[in-house]
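Researcher: Please predict.
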Amino acid sequence: MRKFIFIILFFSATAKCFAQDPHFSQFFSSPLTLNPALTGKFDGDLRITGNYRNQWPSINRAFITPTVSIDFPILRNAIGDNDRWGLGVMAYSDKSANGALSVNYLSLSTAYHKGLDEDGFSQISLGFQGTYSNMTLNTSKLNFEDQLTPFGFTGTTSEIFSGKTLNNSFYDLNAGIMYSKSTNESNNFYVGASFYHILRPKQSFTGTYFLLNQRATLHAGGFFPLGETSTLHLSGLYSTQAKAHETVLGGAMQLAVSEGDNPTNVYVGSWIRISDAIIPYIGLEFGGFRLGLTYDVTTSSLKTASESKGGIELSLNYTKRPADSKGLPCPKF
């Protein structure tokens, strides 16, 4: 029975994947997949970000999405003290149906952050991201109707594919803009918009092609202290691509465990994906590292097939900060 559910979900989601990009519940911990304008937008010399998502874990390897990125400021001595120019590289992969369908991305991002006041507390950011993508479909891992026998899927493979491995590659362009502001050294607020697949590249496995749908995302958030040892972080986004829409809202409380140059903090909170899932979140920050864990609890009609197990997601961020850092407030994820 589970195999039938898997096949139904795969083909419905395969059709969906051509209309909707992979996404993370911890969008706030994956800056370069959220908005190219976030490239280099942090307080430090270097940022490394990794994310791993396993969607519908009750179904064997239905959707696996890992990503890793690195970004850093450049030409600090050649631009204004309140400006910043960032450069970043990102790679991520989205695998479906036990690895039958694999979509791999390699992106190069850059963004310029222009200071709007003498203290650098207000900035407007503009970023661009060039991407190379390769799609691979290993048809030997797929099962078709003409293979179904009383003993399982043992019949002849569909003649359309005949066990082939199909490939498709394309180049793409993404862009984003963001405004951020701090009223003092302990808070920050931001709002941004990003646009993906500006070039609308062609996708094809069998000769018939279609144009990849563009994706637009609006996102906003901020953090502010509630006391000497606690800070509230809020964030949300609205994303649309073809007929697919996503709205995520929520926040987390940051609780200080220790103080100093590299404090230890605990995060506890939750987000909600409207009409789809509740997403509890816990995190730990120490020595420049921040570890985050979420688990989607499906609330939509898919909860029966997925046994209400929407997806487990892990994030790990590392930010290298110099000892003489100015501590300029930036969006914190």
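Model: The chain is about 5% helix and 55% strand.
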